[in-house]
Amino acid sequence: MDLASAKYIGAGLAAIGVGMAALGVGNVFGSFLEGALRNPGAADGQQGRLFIGFAAAELLGLIAFVIAILILFVVK
Amino acid sequence: MAAEGSGIDPMHQFKVEPLFGADWSIAGHNIAFTNSALFMVLTLAGLWLFMLGGMKRQLVPGRWQAAVEGMSSFITNMMDANIGPKGRAFTPYVFSLFMFILFANLIGLIPLGVVPGVHPFTVTSHITLTAILAFFSFGIVVIVGFAKHGFHFFSLFVPYGTPWYIAILVAPIEFMSFLVRPFSLGLRLFVAMTAGHILLDVFASFVVQGLNAGGIGYGVSILSFIMIIGVSALELLVSAIQAYVFALLTSLYLNDAINLH
């Protein structure tokens, strides 16, 4: 396998991480909504924590994206 | 390089180019006025106009003043909830940070590209800017932490009530996670903006290429155009969320330094 094809395969594999992060972010918001519908009065006070969880879950997907970009554009 | 031959070059929009003064230099360093600098100035001007219109201090606020007050009370409430009364001293910093990032993100999303010869640019899609903002936040946390608590600030790395045999394991991990904070803070904003703009650029290329291809290409063009509208709406949301997350995480890190356990 030549280097160019290996790079594209690697970048494609790194993109799986972005999809996994999508699962995580969806889980964060889904669980929040589930809890918020059971107790709407407490929902507004927990929005800060919602976004902390969102940020933590999203960061790993963004790092996977950075890895894909590094593989495509930086690795020679 | 990634898409040679197909004509799509989604990374071109991030190129920093000198607009004028390409030969200006101070002590061997080029200080040309780039498109990045231009859009930072535009962000500053927009922010300045927005704040100027809302700081008339009327007793009954008009629409504009209500908008500015809504923004500032949003950040003040967030600081109060996360830090408490001691956080009031840092509210102006976090407010400036939030508003600058929000305005920079939104100005980067204005479709200036439809005007011939004008190239839109998002300053927050460069890690040079977001990392500087993140290092500001990190520097303030470190300085405030050491100024308030002295060397006792190192107890940040040992959670309260940890037995010593666990602390030996936990302290290096906490130390690493503390050091990674500025990078994750800057990286999150930079990558979120970069990814969104690449996505918009790729779909815009699909529209043009579909029109050139004809036949079934028209269908591809229409679908891509609808997709651009959807992604643009998503990007507006991401712009606001990323500015909020940056301010929120800064306030949480400040809380560690101010209210050390």
UniProtKB/TrEMBL annotation, chain A:
Record field: transmembrane: 12-30, 50-75
CDD domains associated with the record: ATP-synt_Fo_c_ATP5G3
Signal peptide: none
Cell membrane among keywords: yes
Pfam families in UniProt: ATP-synt_C
Site (Reversibly protonated during proton transport): 58
Alphabetically ordered keywords of this record: ATP synthesis, Cell membrane, CF(0), Hydrogen ion transport, Ion transport, Lipid-binding, Membrane, Transmembrane, Transmembrane helix, Transport
Recorded superkingdom: Bacteria
Similarity comment text for this entry: Belongs to the ATPase C chain family.
Protein name (database record): ATP synthase subunit c
Organism of origin: Sphingomonas natans
Gene that produces this protein: atpE
TrEMBL record, chain B:
CDD domains, per the entry: ATP-synt_Fo_a_6
Its membrane topology: Multi-pass membrane protein
SUPFAM superfamilies, per database record: F1F0 ATP synthase subunit A
Matches recorded under Gene3D superfamilies: ATP synthase, F0 complex, subunit A
Regions crossing the membrane: 31-53, 93-115, 127-146, 153-173, 185-208, 215-234
Domain of life: Bacteria
UniProt-listed InterPro entries: ATP_synth_F0_asu, ATP_synth_F0_asu_bact/mt, F0_ATP_A_sf
Location relative to the cell: Cell membrane; Membrane
Keywords, comma-separated and alphabetical: ATP synthesis, Cell membrane, CF(0), Hydrogen ion transport, Ion transport, Membrane, Transmembrane, Transmembrane helix, Transport
Function description: Key component of the proton channel; it plays a direct role in the translocation of protons across the membrane.
Record-stated family: Belongs to the ATPase A chain family.
UniProt protein name: ATP synthase subunit a
The gene coding this protein: atpB
